[in-house]
Design a protein that fits this description.
By secondary structure, this protein is an all-alpha fold. The protein has 2 domains: 139 residues, no CATH class; 52 residues, no CATH class. 66% of the residues lie in helices and 0% in strands. The protein starts with 5 loop residues before the first helix and ends in an 11-residue tail after the last helix.
Length: 224
C-alpha cells in the first residue's frame, strides 16, 4: 500500500486553500448580487455603484481563479499576469475604501438596514483585495526569488515511480540505498534519490542490486 508523504501534502495546501477561498468568494458575490439586485436601481446604489463594484470583483476573482489553472507557467507571461492581478487588487481595494469613506449618512443607513448582504460583501471584498495585493506584491518583490518557484500559478504535479528513479541512479554509477554512506555524503557527481521519495523495500533493493551487478547474458544469483 502506497504511503502519503506529509511534505507533499503541505506543498499542495496553499493551492487548495486559494481555490476554496475563490470559490467561496464567487458564491458569496453571486448571492449578494441576487439578494440585493434592487440596489442598482436605488438612488444610493446609483450614487455609490456598490452593486457594480460587487459584480466586477466577482468576475475578476473568477478569471483569476481560472487563469490560475489554465495559464502556462514560466516566462514573462506569468510575470505579466501576476503584475496585472496585483494592480487590479490594489485598484479594487482603493475603490472600495474611497467608496465607503464618501458614503453619506443617509446611504449608510439604507445600506446597513436594507442591503445587509451587499454591505457584508463590500467589506469582505475590500479585505480580500488588500490581502491579495500584499501577497502578490511580496511574492513579486521577494518571495518568488527566495523560494525559487512561481506561487501565483498552479504547480505541475508529476508522479514518478521509485524504481525508475533508482534505476537511473544505478545506471549512472551511484550507490544504491544499501551502499550509501552513513550520513548520505557521496563524493563526486553521483546522484542520490530525492529526499522526499520513499525508499525501496529491502528485498527489492537487494534483488535490484543483484541484477545490476550480474554480467550480461547471465542470470542473477537466486534466479531459476
Amino acid at each position: 500500500m502506497a504511503t502519503v508523504n506529509p511534505k507533499a501534502c503541505l506543498k499542495v495546501l496553499p493551492a487548495v486553500f486559494f481555490v476554496l477561498w475563490c470559490i467561496n468568494f464567487i458564491v458569496l458575490g453571486m448571492y449578494a448580487m441576487f439578494q440585493d439586485e434592487s440596489l442598482k436601481n436605488q438612488p444610493c446604489g446609483q450614487e455609490t455603484h456598490t452593486w457594480k463594484y460587487a459584480m466586477l470583483n466577482t468576475v475578476f476573482c473568477f478569471f483569476t481563479c481560472s487563469s490560475y489553472f489554465l495559464f502556462p507557467g514560466g516566462g514573462e507571461g506569468a510575470r505579466a499576469r501576476a503584475m496585472v492581478i496585483t494592480i487590479f487588487h490594489l485598484a479594487f481595494a482603493v475603490w472600495g475604501v474611497l467608496m465607503w469613506l464618501q458614503l453619506s449618512k443617509q446611504c449608510l443607513s439604507v445600506l446597513s438596514s436594507q442591503y445587509q448582504a451587499m454591505t457584508a460583501f463590500h467589506h469582505v471584498s475590500v479585505a480580500h483585495n488588500l490581502v491579495f495585493f500584499c501577497l502578490y506584491f511580496t511574492h513579486e518583490a521577494y518571495v518568488g526569488k527566495a523560494v525559487g518557484a512561481d506561487l501565483t500559478l498552479m504547480s505541475e504535479i508529476h508522479q514518478q515511480s521509485a524504481q525508475y528513479a533508482y534505476g537511473v541512479a544505478g545506471a549512472a554509477g551511484a550507490p544504491l540505498p544499501t551502499e550509501m554512506p552513513p550520513h548520505g555524503n557521496m563524493a563526486g557527481n553521483t546522484t542520490q534519490p530525492p529526499p522526499d521519495m520513499a525508499p525501496l523495500n529491502n528485498d527489492i533493493a537487494k534483488d535490484y542490486e543483484n541484477i545490476i551487478k550480474t554480467p550480461p547474458g547471465q542470470l542473477p544469483q537466486g534466479q531459476p
